[in-house]
Amino acid sequence: MTEQTFQDTSLPTLDRRFSVAPMMDLTDSHYRNFARHLTKHTLLYTEMITTGAILHGDKHRFLSFANEEHPIAVQLGGSNPKALRECAIICEDYGYDEINLNVGCPSDRVQNNMIGACLMDHPELVAECLAEMQSTVSVPVTVKHRIGIDDRDSYELLHHFVEHVAKSGCSTFIVHARKAILKGLSPKENREIPPLDYATVYQLKKDFPQLEIIINGGIKTIQESKNHLNHVDGVMIGREAYYNPSMLLNIDEEIFLEAPASQTATQALAAFFPYISSQLDKGTKLGHISRHILGLFHGKPGGRKFRQYLSENAHLPTASIKTLELAIEHLNI
Questions:
Q1: 193-197 long-range CB contacts below 8 Å, 24 or more apart?
Q2: pLDDT averaged over the chain?
Q3: Does the annotation place 116 within a ligand binding site?
Q4: Among 87, 91, 105, 170, which one carries the catalytic annotation?
Q5: 303: annotated binding-site residue?
Q6: What is the per-residue pLDDT for 184?
Q7: Looking at the structure, do residues 195 and 82 belong to the same domain, yes or no?
Q8: Residue 24 annotated in ligand binding
Q9: Where exactly is the site Interacts with tRNA (predicted)?
Q10: Which residues of the chain have pLDDT under 50?
Q11: Cα–Cα distance between 333 and 329 in angstroms, integer?
């Protein structure tokens, strides 16, 4: 692999101060369209998409997105440099603003295909993959990884990983502040059991000031995000942004210092109605869309009844936009 310089800083750069993490079975196009009525500036990610799905499957089904979803990044899963290079070209052609390599997923299924966190044991291969992608596209190529895996979790090993991978030219590292236990824990347990270690991510920023370091893992509030931004370049939030989406309402104003996309959750949902109607007209089932808004009124009067009504009725064959209107009637607004 040929060592490269850091990505050309003359290229347009994304504002990664705040982003929503790629989450399997959650951050699909329906969710991203909905999120855009809560925040216009947050960087959104696709679910992880394997190179095989793109090269040998229905790539349009996996990669297509609406223009309103920008800024948007695609996360790829794979470890074959040539396959990743080809996929990067395809993703850039589709219009993605960033291409991210998954080096953090701990599931057995992806490990067997040399995808995800197991790649932390192979920094040379990760660097080669990133170099191949960067050699053919002009959009930023980034990496998301853990702070370690199994018993190979010393700071020295993490430092070596980042130092070596950075030689590929990759300058943005999204760091989940937990190690991954590759044998014995499920993906869900890997998000909860290994302890968070934010200080380690902070130290990476001190040791690699030239790199953009984004912190991820266990972050739930805007205030926590602001605290982290005193130490690193950006914050990525995962499930809190999905299961309590109204927290995104204040991101544009509090983090990006811009006008909010919507003033209230009710306004955001009303703005989402045309999209829902258009999807229903195309044959999409209401439940495939409404599952992303179940937590919108979390903690609000009537929020539980809203969620319950949608959960019980959105998947019925007769479900329609009227179903959603009836759910809203349960809110005390």
A1: 197/147
A2: 94
A3: no
A4: 105
A5: no
A6: 85
A7: yes
A8: yes
A9: 102, 188, 191, 304, 307
A10: 1-12
A11: 9
